[in-house]
């Protein structure tokens, strides 16, 4: 929930606004959640019958994290990535050295029990169908030919922690010996947990209870004592603002999970991180594509290279009439006024925005895809557009550039177009003119870049393993291990970031430019008084 020059910069404002009435709720429901309601009634029904039982069965059988395959003495094979900083105690011949992950065997109330009660997860979306297929959701049929034949699912945008959890079971370097581990995974479903309590008037005590319960459990473990949790990580499949409640005022939004001192010691992966915080990191929203073999990715990439693109640019989304400063109205107006722009309006009732097929077809037929902020900085749509080989156009650096620094190139001009939103808001800039001024050559180069990015932004099907490609999960685990190694070094040398002049509030700059000098994007990130750290 972002306004731009005003004082209402984050998700908390949403709550304040939302409390003004039911209609705003309905609006929010349609615009934010409608995007995820992607199944026709019929297929939902049949899929649901199919899964009612299998969901429970799955969570019983596979949810027990102690049943994860533990690979200790795998046949040696060459390291795929040289970029790993090596741990101190390495046996040279072990392909997993420096990459071991230990998974905490959490009590089931922190993960699979939440799935058993899937009807309570969201007031707006029936999450029961979305947790099927290990979190990928129901299989998509390919009637319109918008997908390839295998690997496509109606994946919910908030399912990433479940996919990650299941994907971890395929991770090649799991260990049951935590002292060998480079990082410690905490399989807590932080997003699904708080999702149950965001709406419906639950008090702050209820919203915070799992958070307190979890840290209490963690700190008692010997693994915690080693580094005070600095080597622990977990995934929250919602935007960071849902976990950052400032006060205990009942009207404030979300829980305070990310403000607990123990949690601040961990590495938290979320689909949208805070630009002003050093311990949460953006990971891609899930897309609809979850390949189980490398070849499925290569074929899709080739298809996107050959794809005929009819529209110069396109936009799928709803206006935000209640959000001061939103440029979505202008974007829709500019798109309507251009014969080169294709618009998929998501505002009213049942519409094509609910259809993954319609969305993916439009992105595939477009050269540029407009990605203004939504209710918060980021949108799932940015990743759907990359998957479709459509060059994303961002209007705020918080929408991707300062978020997904592990997954996307730091040089944003190599794969995207940036049009500062204040210039659109002032009516100074024609999006069409900017996009038409980009040469065919540059377009080709950017498109090739994003097509190359596809494997990095998709989550592979957790029931199988890609052979040579590294997916969004692999990149995220690498990012965590590198960060933990760095922290380990700092602790060993007795260095503390705050003593080194590190300013938490400038975190977005450190990630991007390695320092905190003046930056042309400073105006986008003036921190609101009440955002905390
Ligand atoms: C996991 O399974 C083992 C044996 O199958 C059992 O002893 C343990 O209690 C289970 N853990 C959880 C969290 O269900
Ligand atoms: C666990 O790993 C450590 C360090 O590599 C080793 O010293 C220890 O013997 C291992 N423990 C078990 C039970 O294998
Ligand atoms: C919060 O809600 C729970 C469940 O409804 C209730 O048991 C508890 O007393 C409430 N706590 C406070 C402080 O109101
Ligand atoms: C809680 O927040 C509301 C709305 O912002 C405000 O009116 C109220 O005074 C606050 N209550 C307390 C105890 O701070
Ligand atoms: C956080 O980690 C530091 C070590 O880096 C440790 O001294 C501190 O106690 C930890 N905090 C908590 C709450 O465990
Ligand atoms: C960023 O990418 C663009 C386009 O590929 C290229 O022209 C430019 O030199 C790159 N900048 C840096 C600093 O590498």
Commentary on this structure:
The protein has about 525 residues and is an alpha/beta fold. It folds into two domains: about 100-285 and about 475-525, no CATH class; about 305-455, Rossmann fold, CATH 3.40.50.2000. Helix content is about 35%, strand content about 10%. The protein has helices at about 10-20, 20-35, 40-60, 110-115, 125-130, 160-170, 190-195, 205-220, 220-225, 260-265, 295-305, 330-335, 355-365, 380-385, 420-425, 430-435, 440-455, 470-490, 505-515, and strands at about 100-105, 185, 230-240, 265-270, 280, 310-315, 340-345, 365-370, 390-395, 415-420. The strands form two sheets. The chain has a five-stranded parallel sheet. Strands 7-6-8-9-10 form a five-stranded parallel sheet, sandwiched between helices. Helix 11 packs antiparallel against helix 17. Mean pLDDT is about 85; it is low at about 1-90. One of its GO terms (molecular function) is glycosyltransferase activity. It comes from Cinnamomum micranthum f. kanehirae. Keywords: Glycosyltransferase, Golgi apparatus, Membrane, Signal-anchor, Transferase, Transmembrane, Transmembrane helix.
Structure annotation, total helices: 19
From the spread of the alpha carbons, the general shape counts as globular
Structural class: alpha/beta
CA radius of gyration: 22 Å
As residue ranges, the low-confidence spans are: 1-89
Helix content: 25-40%
Instruction: Please provide the count of β strands.
Output: 10
Domains (count): 2
Secondary-structure element string: HHHEHHHEHHHEHEEHEHEHEHEEHHHHH
Q: Which ligands, by name, code or SMILES, are bound?
A: 2-acetamido-2-deoxy-beta-D-glucopyranose
Characterize the quaternary organization of these chains.
single chain
Q: Termini distance?
A: 18 Å
